[in-house]
From TrEMBL:
One of its GO terms (biological process) is RNA modification. This is Pentatricopeptide repeat-containing protein. Belongs to the PPR family. PCMP-E subfamily. PPR repeats lie at residues 117-151, 218-252, 253-283, 354-388, 392-426, 493-527, 528-558. GO terms for molecular function: RNA binding. NCBIfam families: PPR. Keywords: Repeat.
Length: 733
DNA sequence: ATAGGGTTAG
């Protein structure tokens, strides 16, 4: 508590190092304190100017909130709080110390008739915005205009920034209108913010117009324009403006270099990023932490482990190790390269962590396939209780897609439900992950529900979501619905076409598959390796031999795609299934790489179909020598022997597989009833609820027999393919 | 009394 002027001054001296100016002013201070006069906002009296300057000086020196509060008390006692200049400084200082509520109190404490000073409003606007309350700052601006105060060159940059941050196009246009009416469009700071705003909105032609109209440009103007082009993935104009800047005698600084780097990174030019980073360090004798983060993320994304570790070295020598976002990139770098030890130890060592830090660790774990660990860290984050560290869309989506890509669809969908319950809005990436899980699980009802949800979120025309929907409907056997989604999709990419082609192929619609492929080529979408795997395998399943051969030829000669192992396997399968075993053998002999299990397996399968025991033995011995756990091959060979009546050989192969401890992953069929998927295993009568099914099945069988339907004699053998024990019985027969 | 650059999910 303060009781008198002497005490006030002694506090000042205790808190701040005594300086000449401070001692001089203390006389003024006590003099003013004694006079107890209320001061108008603007005063030209020198004595009053002095006390205001003194307090302003003290406020600038405050390093704790307590010092600021003490000084504020003195300001009130001396009635100096009526000075707009001091009130503005108090607002700024309180905001800086994290006490926005105090800043507001200062602002509100000033009577409306004294609120004519723009500095006051600008300070309050800035204080509000520094907390991210952009909408509130715009409301404040309205209030300001309502009391008849006109904005100036300090107000407009704040306003432009506020509506750009909110991202509301209407607001942006409104504020831009105010700027135009006030004639501030080419004011350096206002124009710089406008360029930034248009860059963020993706209106680079507007940004360019503002830039071109400026009479004086600062390097910030150039950098804002360059970063606008970079943010909009316009590499060409980013480079052009960078060069223009040099030509006009403005040497691009480190910030301009950083934008140039990030433009290359965004466009996937990872080699150029590394080259430019070296050039930047040479020419400008250093780098920025932001540039380091960009380069690290490029090293992570393109699996350049060696370069990444070298840049980690530079982080330490260059003194960048205390930047949170640099460390976040490092966590991702090590995580993406499968080095979870270094990734998580970096996480542990970080003193200050933000949500991105947590997301980086979670995504590293998910990337490594450790979705349980990722979920564990997610739970820790959820329980942390920090309101700034609550899982966001990215956190949720990371865990959701982690489960999805591991084939744990039910956990994926559970997390999605929880996410909605937590009131976090899914985005296109979330929908894509969840739809993929629905496709894998083939749960049409849930897929449809999510389709509806994506429509309500107005994301159904997004390419990621569209592709997810096509894939989901295809996997659920709803080919027509997939086609409808595909037809409605505004811009289709390679994935959209591949999903359609693969979907038709998957369900044995060879003609539709080829038709879609031809349409794809017609509209100028270049097919890739994946397209040809889908098309070729469709041909082989539909028995379209000549078409398949032609397509293989087209792939190499028309589209200059080097055939991969998969394509050779498809060709062997295609020819072999058609009974052209010799041609299939030729492919195996002439292919440029050592055939793998899939290629030999395709050949073996064909041998089994056409009962070619000699060739089958060659293929089988190759497969067994490759030391894979290709159980299917043992079963195929065994079946072939059995089909040729060579029971002993058949049993021998079976036993061989058994002694090696190999067990076939049994084939399953499924049906979706009331949002639940029921799976069936051949010969598994132990499954609960199956008695009833078998009962119905028995009835049907009886009806079929009495109705003189002929049952397939091979059915039992076929079933045996999926059930080892059962086949062992038939083999020993 | 201002400003430009950055890191996380597919």
């Amino acid at each position: 508590m303060l009781h008198g002027s002497k005490r006030i001054i002694s506090i000042q001296v205790r808190y701040y190092k005594p300086r000449r100016s401070l001692f001089l002013s203390s006389h003024v201070c006590s003099a003013t304190f004694c006079s107890h006069r209320l001061k108008p906002i603007e005063s030209d009296q020198p004595a009053e100017k002095n006390i205001v300057n003194l307090f302003e000086h003290i406020l600038r020196q405050c390093s704790t909130i307590h010092q600021a509060k003490e000084t504020h008390t003195q300001i009130i006692i001396t009635r100096s709080d009526q000075y707009a200049f001091l009130a503005a400084r108090l607002i700024t200082v309180y905001a800086q110390f994290g006490f926005l509520a105090y800043a507001k109190m200062v602002f509100q404490g000033i009577p409306i008739e004294h609120k004519s000073n723009l500095l006051l409003w600008n300070s309050m606007l800035r204080a509000t915005q520094s907390y991210g309350y952009f909408a509130e700052s715009l409301r404040l601006y309205r209030k300001m205009r309502n009391v008849g105060i006109m904005p100036d060159g300090f107000t407009f940059p704040l306003l432009v920034r506020a509506c750009a941050s909110i991202g509301n196009l209407h607001m942006c246009k409104l504020v831009h209108g105010h700027v135009l009416v006030s004639g501030f469009q080419f004011h350096v700071h206002v124009a710089n913010e406008l360029i930034g705003m248009f860059g963020k909105l993706g209106f680079m032609d507007h940004a360019r117009k503002v830039f071109d109209g400026m009479q004086f440009r600062s390097c910030i103007s150039w950098n804002s324009l360059i970063s606008g082009f970079s943010k909009n993935y316009n590499l060409e104009d980013t480079i052009n403006m960078f060069k223009c800047m040099e030509l006009e005698g403005m040497e691009p600084n480190l910030v301009a270099w950083t934008s140039l780097l990030s433009a290359h990174a965004r466009c996937g030019k990872f080699e150029d990023v590394l080259r430019l980073f070296r050039e930047m360090r040479l020419k400008r004798n250093g780098a920025t932490a932001e540039a380091v983060a960009v380069v690290l993320s490029v090293c992570a994304d393109f699996y350049m482990s060696y370069e990444g570790i070298a840049i980690h070295g530079y982080v330490i020598t260059g003194g960048f190790q205390d930047y949170m976002f640099v460390n976040n990139s490092l966590i991702c770098l090590y995580g993406k390269h499968g080095n979870m030890e270094d990734s998580s130890s970096l996480f542990r060592q970080m003193k200050a962590k933000n949500l991105i830090t947590w997301n980086s660790l979670i995504s590293s774990l998910a990337e490594a396939g450790l979705c349980d660990e990722a979920f564990e860290v997610f739970s820790q984050l959820e329980k942390s209780g920090d309101s700034m560290l609550q899982p966001n869309v990215i956190t949720w989506t990371t865990v959701i897609s982690g489960f999805s890509s591991k084939g744990r669809g039910n956990e994926c969908l559970d997390m999605f439900r929880r996410m909605l319950y937590a009131n976090v809005d899914p985005n296109s990436v979330t929908f894509a992950s969840v739809l993929s899980a629905c496709g894998e699980l083939a749960i049409l009802d849930r897929g449809r529900e999510i389709h509806g949800h994506s429509i309500r979120s107005r994301l159904d025309d997004n390419i990621l979501v569209g592709n997810g929907l096509i894939n989901m409907y295809m996997k659920c056997g709803k080919l027509k619905e997939a086609q409808i989604i595909f037809n409605k999709l505004g811009d289709r990419d390679l994935v959209s076409w591949n999903s359609m082609i693969a979907g038709y192929g998957m369900h044995g619609f060879g003609e539709d598959c080829l038709l879609t492929f031809r349409q794809m080529v017609e509209v100028g979408q270049r097919p890739d390796e994946v397209t040809f795997v889908a098309v070729l395998s469709a041909c082989s399943h539909a028995g379209l031999v000549t078409e398949g051969q032609q397509l293989f030829d087209q792939m190499v000669n028309m589209f200059s795609i080097q055939p991969l192992m998969e394509h050779y396997a498809c060709m062997v399968d295609l020819l072999g299934r058609a009974g052209l075993l010799q041609e299939a053998c030729d492919i195996v002999k002439n292919m440029p790489m050592e055939p793998n299990v899939c290629v030999w397996g395709a050949l073996l399968n064909s041998c089994q179909m056409y009962k070619n025991t000699d060739l089958a033995e060659v293929a089988a011995s190759k497969i067994f020598s490759l030391e894979t756990r290709a159980v299917g091959s043992y079963i195929l060979l065994s079946n072939l022997y059995a089909a040729c009546g060579s029971w002993q050989n058949s049993a021998k192969v079976r036993m061989l597989a058994k002694t090696k401890g190999l067990k076939k992953n049994p084939g399953q069929s499924w049906i979706e009833v009331q949002n639940k998927v029921h799976t069936f295993l051949a010969g598994n009568a132990l499954q609960p609820g199956l008695e009833e099914v078998y009962h119905v099945l028995g009835d049907l069988g009886l009806k079929m027999e009495t109705g003189r339907y002929i049952t397939d004699g091979n059915a039992e053998l076929h079933e045996g393919l999926y059930n080892e024990d059962k086949l062992m019985v038939s083999a020993n027969y």
